[in-house]
Each structure stands twice: as C-alpha cells, then as structure tokens.
Design brief:
This is Glycosyl transferase. The protein is of the alpha/beta class. It is built from twelve helices and eleven strands. The strands form three sheets. A six-stranded parallel beta sheet has the order 8-7-6-9-10-11, with helices on both faces. Helix 4 crosses helix 10 and helix 8 packs across helix 11.
Length: 355
C-alpha cells in the first residue's frame, strides 16, 4: 500500500486492492477500490483461498493488469484475467522453516511441490524479484526491484536515550522471545521496549504476559506509516532475526526503515544486514540468540550519546542515498505499464493449470 500502490496512484493509475482490511482493523484509503477478504491463518486456509478467488474474479473485470504477492494466490487466479505479474518477495521454500504450524509430512513434501509451482508460474506470468539472490530459482532473466522504503527529505529527530523499538511481524524466528528477555534486562536501567506489529500465535501468550508484567509495550498491528513514525526518537531499532534460509538472502527492510528514521540499528549477522550496517557504520552487529550481547549493545549506545547521533546520521545518509523507494518506483511503474499493454505470455489458464 505505502510503496507500490502509492507509486501507481502517483502515476495516475486506478488501483483495486484485495486485502484483509477487517482482520487488520484497517480502513482503506478513499483513493483506491478496496475488496476485503479474510486472512489465511495456520492450516485452515481453504475459506480464505476461496474468498480470494472470488475477490480476484471481481477485481480484474475492468483491470489492465493483475499483480499478486503470495504464492498461494497462484491457485486462485481467474480463468479470464489481464496480464498477470507475480512479485516474488520471499524464498518460498526457505520460509517453510518459519511456519511452525506445518506437520513434518508437509515439510518433506512441500519443497518439491513449491519449486514446480514456481517453474510453471514463470512460464505463464511476468515476474518481479525483490532480491537479486532469487534469480537462481528461475530460468529467465527477471527484473529485480528491491523492497525499500520512503526516506524523509530532511533528517529525522535525533535518537533518544530511554527507548528501543521493533517494527514488524513478531515470531520466534524474528526474535520475539529474545526481545521479551531483553526487555526484562533493560527495565532496571530505565529503558523501555516498544514492539509494533502483529504476532504469530505461538508467541502471543508470552507477549501478553510480558505486557501485563510491565516489561514492554506491545502495540499490535499498526499501519506502516504510523508505525514508522513511532521509530523517531528511539535509542535503537532491533532486528534480531534468526539464521533461517528465508532471511539469509533477503534485504532487511526493517533495518533500512530504522536507518531512514535516523536511529542506530542492532542486528543479528545476517549477510545483507551485516554488510549494510557495517559499511555505513550505523549500528551494532550481535550474535544470534545472544540477549546479553544485545543488552550490552543497547547500554553502550545509551551511555555514548555522541556515538548514537553519529550512527543515526550515517544510517539516514546511507538510506537516503541508496534505499529511497522512489528511485525504484519509476522502474516498477514502467514495467507494469509495459506489461499491461503487451501480449500475454501464455493463454490464461485455470488455477489447476498452475498446480
């Protein structure tokens, strides 16, 4: 909504957006045509998939192009549809490690099935890749358009001294349990932890208990633009992702978002995150799962305001110079406009043909 759809609206296009607005307690903006659908959760996804199939049929009636993000929607494509683009924004097989609700039999079967789905989709759809590392999964040469962020034109407020923040989905693989323990260790030092984002079912009880105990403030889902404003003035932004395949090749969007808001980053040593933070000297790299190291990094930043300000300034400059979304938005819009007027890659098929 805040990057791709905004870029299309700014270019003068009309947009229909199919999304779980009610589930996320979000009121869609007036300038789009919104179609509300239920959110797929856990193993019981049939109802949500059927609703998505009906919503897509309705949404594409007068559309010049259909853009999808989730691999599951390849099973819900309408028989009659315009040029269709799949925006590949995760390592689908690598992400299986983070889906704790899947039984062992599914974990064994799904990798091969997902690769076949990807290869069939490549022959019938246009593809956009969010990471250059995804190229190895496909035979063709597809455009890479990174999932970056809007960086303010003017430098944001200086980082503060008594609050650290995390923005994004909360799960075990994203370090939720480590952040709860971190909050416990920082509280005696007068530093509070803000968690902004929806949570996976397995970590919700621990988060609720921590909030009741007064260890942290968990705000739940907050629309992206509001969530990023909450980053302003923080002592540091946390990205404590685990070393799982889906994260290993990905541009750490939350790291870029913290940098764009002028706060130092505390991140685990995932290759791209470590490379960006180390090159820009805009934060601290800590070992996976090491809460002691994270707490020490935060306290060192708290006790060194000059270093904190320098890191925040370095991060902002790096984000503005290399990760400002409008720099990618022009190519994104141009690609969609080109594909919307080009002949289809292959005749539209039913969802079964892509299975």
């Amino acid at each position: 909504m805040h990057r791709q759809i905004r870029a299309l609206l700014d270019a003068g296009h009309e947009v229909t957006y199919v999304a779980p607005f009610t589930h996320c307690n979000v009121t869609p903006p007036q300038e789009i045509r919104a179609i509300d659908v239920p959110r797929a959760v856990g193993l019981r996804r049939g109802h949500a998939l059927n609703a998505a199939r009906a919503a897509l049929r309705k949404g594409v009636r007068d559309a010049d192009l259909l853009l999808i993000h989730d691999i599951e929607l390849l099973f819900a494509l309408p028989r009659r549809r315009p040029a269709t683009v799949w925006d590949v924004h995760e390592d689908t097989v690598g992400a299986l490690d983070t889906k704790t609700y899947l039984p062992p039999s599914a974990r064994r079967m799904l990798p091969g099935l997902l690769r076949r789905i990807e290869h069939r989709a490549e022959r019938r759809l246009h593809l956009i890749l969010a990471e250059a590392a995804y190229r190895d999964r496909f035979a063709g040469d597809h455009p890479v358009i990174p999932n970056t962020t809007y960086v303010p034109e003017t430098p944001p407020p200086l980082p503060g001294a008594n609050r650290v923040i995390y923005v994004g989905q909360l799960s075990e693989a994203r370090g939720a349990l480590e952040m709860i323990e971190l909050a416990r260790r920082l509280r005696p030092h007068g530093i509070r932890l803000d968690l902004v984002g929806a949570a996976d079912p397995e970590v919700r009880p621990a988060l609720r208990d921590a909030q009741r105990e007064g260890l942290l403030d968990w705000f739940g889902y907050v629309p992206n633009d509001h969530a990023l404003r909450m980053v302003h003035g923080a002592l540091a932004g946390l990205s404590l992702l685990h070393d799982v395949p889906n994260y290993r090749q990905s541009l750490p969007t939350k790291v870029i978002e913290y940098m764009a808001r002028g706060v130092p980053v505390v991140t685990t040593p995932l290759p791209l995150a470590a490379s960006i933070v180390g090159r820009a000297d805009c934060g601290v790299i800590v070992p996976y799962g090491d809460v002691d190291a994270v707490a020490q990094a935060v306290l060192r930043l708290r006790d060194d305001p000059e270093r904190r300000v320098v890191m925040g300034a370095h991060g902002y400059a790096e984000a503005r110079g290399h990760y400002h979304w409008p720099d990618q938005a022009r190519e994104f819009v141009a690609r969609l406009e080109e594909w919307a007027t080009a002949p289809a890659l292959a005749p539209a098929r039913t969802h079964a043909a892509l299975a």
